[in-house]
Structures are given as C-alpha cells and as structure tokens.
Amino acid sequence: MDVAGLPEVKLDKVIERFDMLQAQMASGSVGEAFVKLSKEYAELEPVVAAIRDWRSKRAELADLAAMKDDASADAEMRALAEEEWKAAQEALPEAERQVKLLLLPKDAADEKSAILEVRAGTGGDEAALFASELFAMYRAYAALHGWSFEVMSLAETELGGLREGVAAINGRGVFARLKFESGVHRVQRVPATEASGRIHTSAATVAVLPEAEDVDIHINESDLRIDVYRSSGAGGQHVNTTDSAVRITHMPTGIVVAQQTERSQHKNKAQAMKLLRAKLFEVERDRLDGERAASRKGQVGSGDRSERIRTYNFPQGRVTDHRINLTLYKIEEVMAGQALDEIIAALISEDQAERLASLND
After folding, report:
1. pLDDT value of position 304
2. How far apart are CA 17 and CA 249, in angstroms?
3. CA atoms of 86 and 57, how far apart (whole Å)
4. Coil/strand/helix, residue 143
5. pLDDT (tens digit, 9 = 90+) per residue, 113-126?
6. Does residue 333 register a pLDDT over 50?
7. pTM
8. Which residues contact 46 (CB under 8 A, 6 or more apart)?
9. Burial grade of 225 (CB within 10 A; 0-12, 13-18, 19 or more)
10. Confidence band (pLDDT; 50, 70, 90) for 166?
C-alpha cells in the first residue's frame, strides 16, 4: 500500500537491494566486482537512510497520536504527547520530500566532468572582454570546489578579450552543478572605451557538455577527416612553426573541432578527440531526451543555448537569473566565483521542485 504518495513496494525493493549488496560485499567479493558493488552501495546508502528516517518518523507520529488520544492516560502525559505529535507532524513532510528527491530519476551524466565553452556574442570588443571575465569566473569557481581546470583552447583578442575559450573541468559531480549555466549571459555596463559614459549591452554564450568516455560514445575513424596546420596565436604570433594544430571533422554530423594549444600534434589530436566525443555525446543525449526536452522547453533544465538566462548589471551591482527570477546584489562575489553557488543551488532546487511536481501530474 502506498502512504503519503510514496510507493511502499518500491521502497521495500530498494532496501532489499541494499541489504543484498551489503551481504555480497561482506562475503569477500574482490576486484572489479567489488568496485561495482561498492559504487551501487554508496549510491543507495543515502536513499535507504532517508527511507528509514521517514518510516521512523511516521511510526513515531502514529504512536504519539495514540498516546494523545488515549482517554485513560494521565492528562499531563497526553498534553506532552500532543506537543510532540505536532512537532513530528511538521517534520514528516520534509522527510517524505527527501525520499522523493532521492528516488527521482538521475541524469546519468551528473557525476561526470565537463567541457566548458565560452564564446563572445553580440557587442564587439566589450563582448569579448565579458567572455574573458566569465571564463575566469568559472576557473575561480572550479578552484573553490577543488576541481581541475584545464584550458583546451583560447582565441584571444588584442585588447585582452576572448573570442572563444574551451576548458575541461575535471572532478566529481561537475556536470551536475554546471549544466544549468548553458545559455546566453548578458552584461550591462559602461565599457572602458566609452567616452560618453553610456551603458552598453553585450552578450556571451556558455555551453557546458558532459565529458564522454570511449564507452559512452563510439567513433568510427572512417567517419573522420583530420587536417593539420600551423598553430598561430592572437595578433599573428606563432605558437610554433610546425604543423601541430589539428582540425577534425565528423562527416556524418558536420561537427568540426580544432586544437592548437599544445606544441605536439599528438596531444592536440587527443584534445580534439576529447572535445568531439563530448559534442557527439551531447547530440546523442539530446536525441534520446527529445520528448522530455520538448516538454520542459523554457524551464530550468532546457539547456537551450540561444536562451537569455542571466544578466550581469554592473552599474547596479546585480546579477539576475531570468529562469527563476532570482536577483543577487553581489556582482563582484559572483564574478569571483564565490557567490555563484547561491545561484546554482537555487537553480537545482527549482529543477527538483519541477520534477517532483511532474511526478504528480
């Protein structure tokens, strides 16, 4: 029987599976089998703890209800039981919500590392400068979380801006925290080159892709056209004088990736293949997820890169996320990566609320 919207049979099966894993691990499993078992065990542990906590609170509530309604009991004891019953009744919905959250279908890519792409949009030099600041913001955010930030390619302007920047951010759960950053980021401020002091609006686009492994996506070598050419930096500076830069075209999809950061052609090819795998993995995810994406278009998790998601207004010192109508007057802290978690946490909470609501549709 289902209670309070939670499927009792499903909860029982989760606990049974957890107990079975515990027994198998205790029996002396070794090697790859043990790693697989322990990974599933670690994923189920918080779910089982939440289920047991909810059931314990539910049982306590029933016991307290019986005590407060027991006419033969001492009046003082009944009054005490009623106070505790009220407190237990208030605590139960949150315990139930935690179970529901943990039972929500998980995005298989959430635990993965990610590829970050930042590109200057409309606004010329000012847009490129803003793109550079966004790239630095994500670098600082990665450092605060203990993630590595590996620059894969940079196309800089002579004024110190960024036409395009690509980085691999490695760590556990990177994609889960950064996936809602994809979209158009708009900046409003007076450019340093503006003599009249007028506020300009510029934009940069951000894309966050889950990093794909060979097991996630298979690429046929015959589908690739690989070109090599001489690397060159901003302002015509040569990175080196050999044909070390690599451009790979995936002919079935038309996706093109290029790398020239490394001096070694072999390393540039490896980086380009890493980026290509991520892009093809995202195409496949979009294809498989088409129905859900269509139903959630315009919501927090849509991932539409043409959607204006956030405005950074420097004169007013505010950052506004348009998807959840959240405004923080902490623009310096956000740009330093320190307050970005406040926005990301709110986006994750909103996404969870939407998904919980959809369970009841």
Report:
1. 52
2. 45
3. 12
4. helix
5. 999 999 999 888 89
6. yes
7. 0.71
8. 102
9. exposed
10. very high
Return the beta strands (E) in 214-281 as ranges.
Answer: 224-229, 245-250, 255-259
Distance CA 97, CA 6 (A): 10
Q: Which two tokens stand for residue 63?
A: 């016991």
Q: What is the mean pLDDT of the chain?
A: 84
Pairing of strands 224-229, 200-210: unpaired
In the sheet where 245-250 sits, what is the strand order? 224-229, 245-250, 255-259
User: What digits encode the pLDDT tens for the residues 282-316?
Assistant: 888 777 666 544 444 444 554 455 678 999 999 99
Q: What is the DSSP letter of 107?
A: P
Q: Taking Cα atoms as reference points, which of 200, 119, 191 lies closest to residue 157?
A: 119
The residue whose two tokens read 């490129």 is 128
User: Cα dist. 274→227, 242, 286, 310 in Å?
Assistant: 16, 22, 19, 29
